[in-house]
UniProtKB/TrEMBL annotation:
InterPro entries listed in its UniProt record: CstA (IPR051605), CstA_N (IPR003706)
Residues of the CstA N-terminal domain: 1-167
Domain of life: Bacteria
Protein name: Carbon starvation protein A
TM annotation in the entry: 80-104, 125-150, 156-179, 186-207, 227-246, 266-290, 319-340, 361-383, 389-407, 414-433, 445-463
Alphabetical list of Pfam families matching this protein: CstA
Key words of the record: Cell membrane, Membrane, Transmembrane, Transmembrane helix
Main localization of the protein described in the UniProt heading: membrane
Subcellular location: Cell membrane
Gene Ontology biological process: cellular response to starvation
Keyword Lyase appears in the UniProt entry: no
UniProt membrane topology term: Multi-pass membrane protein
GO CC annotation, single: plasma membrane
Length: 497
């Protein structure tokens, strides 16, 4: 129990200490006008209060990731706690804050546009590809996982395909609505259900008669029943809840609705800490209620949704347990919606198509949903593996973009460079060793080859950054945060000036 409690306390302390340092390092300016004020369009650029932005950010980034991932991460044993706590404080929350704030300084520009500005144009196209792939996989995963949970609550004769179609209809309607209507009105209610159900499970674990596995020298080992290695496995199994590239596609969307730069630490860093607390609760519940073989069997029999059902009903009983399952359902529904909405925005920005009329919105939206619908027929566990890798590659790209931003500004860039290099090495080893890549296994070739490739890529990145900084003059747009997205919205800029 004390490992769980101390871990949650550490996350909260991290928000008030390291989070404050990260904020100070960025130097937010409360006097700057924000994209929501400059580019109001009644669709994506809409001013909203801090509390509502925080709820939207939390529900956007959460999905089933901080629940399904930690459940599967619990197979490794109590060591999963360490990655959630340290990963969240020093990597994930930093990643979310920095990308969100750099986007805010660039009028809500998405990650591909930021990569094009701070690294180079070629990188923009690569990042755009990964971001689109990631969002398509996320949206599809967050259709399949809530559909399975909803089916478990309904009579047995309700076909899964009917639920999937109903979710897509909800997504299409919500995607074409203004953000303050699609998310601003509904998400506070979703957030209330999530918070109440999650807190209920956490308190039941603490005050109920449940034995939690503590982290100690004896348990600081790999307990995975299939013998899967902790590195790099756990860093891809638990992504949401520790560090997730998906968040780099969500923070820019919320940066378009913020009214003050001072909101950043609460909205971006703070909501990632909240997600870490959710992840801690589900790791603790999985370790308390199941042994490794049982947990593995439940996951292999379908998805982690079976574990969600069992945990919720056993800890809270049939009535409140069902409410907890509903609380879990709202997470992927909200994140799936935000994934498709972000995908629409990224594609629109990339092809320079303003989203100011319904036909333009539908031109991009409909093909996205058609592709995703057919992907729902692919095995969920296969989708999850590809999602995890694309997710962490996107996180690396976001950290390298924000590192370059801090480097050009003359700030402490190690806060993003260190986690970026670590995850770069992890994604390369994963690609070399796993069946989705070169399938070399976790051999010396994968580890040492991964290290060599990481050093080469890092050297190229560093040399380019030094040359870029040497070529800058004090009036440079890169230094002075000129708003690149003005190129996409010249009429709006003219109208608001």
């Amino acid at each position: 129990m004390w490992t769980f409690i101390l871990g949650v306390i550490a996350l909260i302390v991290g928000y008030f200490t390291y989070g404050r340092y990260i904020e100070k390092n960025f130097e937010p300016n409360p006097e700057r006008t924000t994209p929501a004020e400059v580019l109001q369009d009644g669709m994506d650029f809409v001013p909203m209060p801090r509390w509502k932005n925080g709820i939207i950010e939390l529900l956007n980034i959460a999905g089933t990731g901080p629940i399904f991932g930690p459940i599967m991460g619990a197979l490794y044993g109590p060591v999963a706690y360490l990655w959630i706590v340290f990963g969240c404080i020093f990597a994930g929350a930093v990643h979310d804050y920095m990308l969100g704030m750099v986007s805010l300084r660039n009028n809500g520009a998405q990650l591909p546009a930021l990569a094009g500005k701070y690294i180079n144009k070629g990188t923009m196209h690569v990042v755009n590809l990964f971001a689109c792939l990631l969002l398509l996989l996320v949206g599809t995963v967050f259709v399949s996982s809530p559909a399975a949970l909803i089916q478990s609550l309904l009579p047995g004769n309700v076909a899964l395909i009917i639920i999937i179609i109903a979710i897509f209809i909800y997504y299409i309607i919500s995607t074409v609505l203004p953000i303050d209507k699609a998310m601003g009105k509904v998400y506070p209610w979703f957030g209330a259900v999530l918070i109440i159900s999650t807190v209920a499970i956490g308190l039941t674990l603490i005050f109920g008669d449940h034995s939690m596995v503590e982290l100690s020298s004896a348990t600081m080992a790999n307990f995975h029943p299939k013998g899967l290695a902790i590195f790099p496995g756990i860093f891809f199994t638990i992504s949401c809840g520790a560090m997730s590239g998906f968040h780099a596609t969500q923070a820019p969307m919320v940066s378009r609705t913020m009214e003050n730069e001072r909101e950043g630490r609460f909205t971006f860093y703070g909501m990632m800490i909240a997600e870490g607390v959710i992840a801690m609760i589900w790791v603790a519940a999985s370790l308390a209620l199941f042994d490794g073989e049982t947990l593995s069997g439940m996951i292999d029999a379908g998805t982690a949704s079976a574990v969600v059902n069992a945990v919720s009903l056993e800890l809270l009983g049939p009535v409140f347990g069902t409410l907890a399952i509903i609380g879990v359902i709202v997470l992927p529904l909200s994140s799936g919606l935000s994934a498709f909405r972000s995908l629409r925005i990224i594609i629109a920005d990339y092809v320079h198509m303003k989203q100011d009329t319904l036909p333009k919105v539908m031109t991009i939206t409909i093909p996205i949903y058609v592709i995703s619908f057919f992907l729902t027929f692919v095995d969920f566990n296969i989708l999850w593996r590809y999602f995890n890798w694309a997710n962490q590659v996107t996180a690396v790209l976001a950290l390298l973009v924000t590192t370059r931003y801090l480097f050009l500004k003359g700030r402490n860039y190690f806060v993003t460079l260190v986690p970026g290099v670590f995850m770069l090495y992890a994604v390369i080893v994963y690609l070399l060793s796993e069946p989705i890549g070169f399938n070399l296994g976790l051999s010396n070739l994968s580890y040492w080859g991964g290290a060599a490739i990481t050093l080469i890529l890092l050297a190229v990145y560093w040399i380019q950054g030094v040359k870029q900084k040497e070529a800058l003059d004090p009036s440079s747009k890169l230094i002075n945060d000129q708003l690149q997205i003005h190129q996409l919205y010249p009429e709006l800029v003219e109208k608001n000036n």
